[in-house]
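Handout, section 4.2: multi-component inputs.
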Amino acid sequence: MPLERHATVIDSFSNAPEQIREVVDTYGYWLEDIGNCPLYFNEEIGELEKTSSGYIPDEWRIVMDKYMNDYEYGIVFRHEYGHYIDDMIGNYSETHEYNQAFKMDKKIFNNATDEGNANIDDMLRDLSENISVFESRYVSDILSAITENDTKIIKYYDKNEVEFFWHRWEKYWFPFKHMKNETFANLFAIYTENNSDIVAFAEKWFPNLTEQFKISINKSIELNGVDKSMTEINEYYGDDGAYRKLDNLTENEWAKCLAKYYMKYQEIFGYIPDESDYSCTREVYAEALLKALEEKKEISEYLKM
Ligand SMILES: [Zn+2]
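Output:
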């Protein structure tokens, strides 16, 4: 992490409640790096551009725009860390339960119904009564997702000269997946920031999502790193998006499933183990690999050649 941001990052978590702290304690050490946004060559305009802040799941890295001031850096960092935690606990935002919660909260603001419109009006009134909630970019980004950028809401922000932080969902290949990923990261950020007005607003207007979020955090505290990763490996989906058992993944899919663990292994031991040295099931192999990473001992300690 850039040294000069150390205090900012610590500070952005200073108010976090106990459960969030526990999650960070459990999963924090897997985070490889907090770096600056890399430059890339934009062929369309023929210029170098920097990528925006984000979390890179395959590499367990967060990249941050180095031109942000400390205040903004802290705000964005909490959000990106939320993506990291979502990834570490097995992409909870893509589970069936979270999906159901997302749909239920979306219904609250269904602008095709009278009730939905009345709720939008009530919600906007709540916003206008509390400036910290109104200005929370986590709140506006959740609204952006669950209302799919309802124009009435955006206009309300504009009229009050409050910035509406949002995503253009239509630009994504899988907009609904991203809406859920983003709401999760924003909820993580809200609970970590722990402003009581913002938390109260979120729990009032996103009741199902906030409940699911809390469940996810409690569940993830129960799992330790190895169990959690094992769950993720066991639930690996094939390239076609269909679930199949580990032993039925193609060689290629299996390699992808293990890729990030191998990367970590290579970093620690300087080589990638050869699975063909061992005659065991993929599940046994994966468990040994995770143990090796956690205890920083070579995989041969756990498997017979
Ligand atoms: Zn995000």
